[in-house]
Design a protein that fits this description.
The protein has 83 residues and is α+β, with helices and mostly antiparallel strands. The protein is 22% helix and 31% strand. The protein has a single domain, classed as Alpha-Beta Plaits (2-Layer Sandwich), CATH 3.30.70.330. It has 2 helices and 5 strands; from the N terminus they run H-E-H-E-E-E-E. The strands form 2 sheets. It has a 3-stranded antiparallel β-sheet. The protein has a two-stranded antiparallel ribbon with strand order 3-4. The protein is elongated. It comes from Candidatus Kuenenbacteria bacterium RIFCSPLOWO2_12_FULL_42_13. Keywords: Ribonucleoprotein, Ribosomal protein.
Length: 83
Amino acid sequence: MTEKSTMLTGYGQYVFAVSLNATKTAIKKAIQEIYNVKPIKIRIIRHQGKKVRTGKNTSGYLKAWKKALVVVPKDAKIDVYEN
């Protein structure tokens, strides 16, 4: 949880790290099953893997990952810290 994602919870928006193969439909079903909340909107952000240095002459890669920004109705809340 970053400061930005914590701030977004006040606006009914929650950020989740999801599988690279996850679709909006699959994410919506998972949110409904786990938290019993029907999302209004889902946005997906895909982060590319990066080449990083781990020393003077050695390098490696950070894996690619995907995050989903889920918008829920105003009267609904997701308690992220309990689950």
